[in-house]
Design a protein that fits this description.
The protein has 427 residues and is an alpha/beta fold. It folds into four domains: 12-116, GTPase HflX, N-terminal domain (Rossmann fold), CATH 3.40.50; 122-195, no CATH class; 198-365, Rossmann fold (3-Layer(aba) Sandwich); 368-423. Helices cover 42% and strands 21% of the residues. The chain is built from 14 helices and 15 strands. The strands form four sheets. The chain has a six-stranded mixed beta sheet with strand order 8-9-7-10-11-12, with helices on both faces. A four-stranded parallel beta sheet has the order 2-1-3-4, sandwiched between helices.
Length: 427
C-alpha cells in the first residue's frame, strides 16, 4: 500500500542587494538592507546574504558594476541561490540583463512588496486593489520578458494582421486595468455610503509604519480580535470597530494598511479607497515603534505618504509603542522632550493605554456638542434625523412634545441645527 509523504516546500534562497550613493550613510544602508531582508522573509524567502555597493550613480545596464555582477554570479553557483532582490526599482533592461547573466529570478523592492500584498489579500476589495497595482507595475516591464512575445499573430481576435503578442498582451492588460478601476470605483461608492452611516460618531484612524503595532493597539482599545502577526503588512483590509470612552460616549476606531519606505506609487493609488477611513477621521493615531533604530525615518515616511494622499492638517496623536522595552529612562525623557505632545504606551501589555484613551476622549468632546431640542408631536418626521445625527444622551416624552438631547460631531451638528432651528431649546 502506497503512503503519501508530506514534505514542506523549501524556502527560496535569496540575496538582497542595495546600491548607495558614494560617500553615503553606510549604517543607514545596512538598515535598509535589513528591512529588505525582512520583506523577502515575509514573502517566504531564505535570505543567505546581504550585499551593497557604493557608486557615484547606478549602472544603466545592470544597476551594479561588472565586478559585483561577477561576484554575485559566483555566490549564486556556490550556494544554489534562486532569487536576487534589489532595494531599488530596476528597469526592464536591467532585469533582462541580470537575468540573462545569472540565469535566475531577479526582483526589485516594488515587486517583492506587491508579491506580499498578493499573498495576504483576503477580501474582494484588497484582491482587486493588489491586482490593479500588479498590472500597472507589469505593463512597462513587458518588453522581452517572455520568449513568446516575439511571435506574430493575426486574424480574428487581434488588433490586426501583424500584431505582435506583446502588443496583444499590453492591450489586454490595459483593458483589465480599466475594468479594475471601474470595479474599485463601485467599491469606493459602497464604502462612502457605509462611512456616511457612521458620521454621527467621533472617528479615529490608526496609521503608521508597517509592523509598528497598530492592530495590537486596535485590539487593546476595542477588545476586538483583529489579526496580529510579527510580519510586515499583516493588515491589508481596513477594520472599523466601535468602542466606548470612560464617560460613556461611543466612538469608532479604524485600522489601516501599514506604510513602508519606497512604497510603490501604484499600490498607494490602488489603496486610496481603503485609506479613506484615515482621510475622513476626526483624528489620527500615528503609531511608532520607538524601539526601532530608524523610528524617526519611519515617522518621516508616514508623514510624506499621508501628504501624497492629501491627508494633511489632521489632528494627530503621536503614539510611541513598545515603551516598556526602553529600559533607559533617558531615552524616554528624550522622546518626551523632542515630541512634547506624544504618548508612550505598550499596546501588548496595556501600559498607559488609559492616558491615550483620555486624550482621545478630549478630542471627541472638543469635536462634539450637545444639542437640546423640543420637538412637537406634529413634527415627528424629524425624529429619525435626531437618531442619525449623533448619540442620544437624553429623551423625555412630555405633553407638548419630545425633549431630546443629541451629542453630534461637527458635520452632523451643522445639518441638525439647520433642520431643527425652530425647535432648539436653550437653557
Amino acid at each position: 500500500m502506497k503512503q503519501l509523504v508530506h514534505t514542506a516546500n523549501p524556502h527560496e534562497k535569496a540575496l538582497v542587494v542595495a546600491v548607495i550613493k558614494k560617500g553615503g550613510n553606510r549604517i543607514e544602508a545596512l538598515e535598509y538592507l535589513d528591512e529588505l531582508a525582512f520583506l523577502a522573509e515575509t514573502a517566504g524567502a531564505e535570505v543567505i546574504g546581504k550585499i551593497y555597493q557604493e557608486r557615484v550613480r547606478p549602472d544603466r545596464a545592470t544597476m551594479i558594476g561588472k565586478g559585483k555582477v561577477a561576484e554575485i554570479k559566483e555566490m549564486i553557483e556556490l550556494d544554489d541561490i534562486q532569487t536576487v532582490i534589489f532595494d531599488d526599482d530596476l528597469s526592464p533592461m536591467q532585469i533582462r540583463n541580470l537575468g540573462k547573466e545569472w540565469q535566475i529570478k531577479v526582483l526589485d523592492r516594488s515587486g517583492i512588496i506587491l508579491d506580499i500584498f498578493a499573498s495576504r489579500a483576503r477580501s474582494m476589495e484588497a484582491k482587486t486593489q493588489v491586482e490593479l497595482a500588479q498590472l500597472q507595475y507589469l505593463l512597462p516591464r513587458l518588453t522581452r520578458m517572455w520568449t513568446h512575445l516575439s511571435k506574430q499573430f493575426g486574424g480574428i481576435g487581434t488588433k490586426g494582421p501583424g500584431e505582435t503578442q506583446i502588443e496583444t498582451d499590453r492591450r489586454l492588460i490595459r483593458d483589465r486595468i480599466t475594468r479594475l478601476k471601474e470595479k474599485l470605483s463601485d467599491i469606493d461608492m459602497q464604502r462612502f455610503q457605509q462611512r456616511k452611516g457612521r458620521l454621527s460618531l467621533p472617528r479615529f484612524a490608526l496609521v503608521g509604519y508597517t509592523n509598528a503595532g497598530k492592530s495590537t493597539l486596535m485590539n487593546t482599545i476595542t477588545h476586538a480580535d483583529t489579526y496580529v502577526e510579527d510580519k510586515l503588512f499583516a493588515t491589508l483590509d481596513t477594520t472599523v470597530r466601535q468602542f466606548e470612552f470612560p464617560g460613556g460616549q461611543k466612538a469608532l476606531l479604524s485600522d489601516t494598511v501599514g506604510f513602508i519606505r519606497k512604497l510603490p506609487t501604484h499600490l498607494i493609488a490602488s489603496f486610496r479607497s481603503t485609506l479613506a477611513e484615515a482621510a475622513e477621521a476626526d483624528a489620527l493615531l500615528h503609531v511608532i515603534d520607538c524601539t526601532h533604530s530608524s523610528f524617526k525615518d519611519h515617522i518621516r515616511v508616514v508623514q510624506e505618504t499621508l501628504e501624497s494622499l492629501k491627508i494633511i492638517n489632521k489632528k494627530t496623536i503621536l503614539v510611541f509603542n513598545k515603551i516598556d522595552a526602553l529600559h533607559d529612562i533617558n531615552a524616554i525623557r528624550e522622546l518626551e522632550y523632542e515630541f512634547p505632545d506624544c504618548i508612550g504606551i505598550s499596546a501588548s501589555t496595556g501600559l498607559n493605554i488609559s492616558s491615550l484613551i483620555e486624550k482621545m476622549q478630549e478630542i471627541a468632546v472638543d469635536n462634539s456638542q450637545d444639542i437640546r431640542i423640543l420637538l412637537p408631536y406634529n413634527s415627528m418626521q424629524l425624529l429619525p434625523l435626531m437618531y442619525e445625527s449623533g448619540e442620544i444622551i437624553d429623551r423625555q416624552d412630555l405633553d407638548i412634545g419630545i425633549m431630546i438631547v443629541v451629542r453630534a460631531v461637527k458635520d452632523k451638528r451643522e445639518i441638525l441645527l439647520r433642520q431643527c432651528e425652530n425647535y432648539l431649546f436653550l437653557d
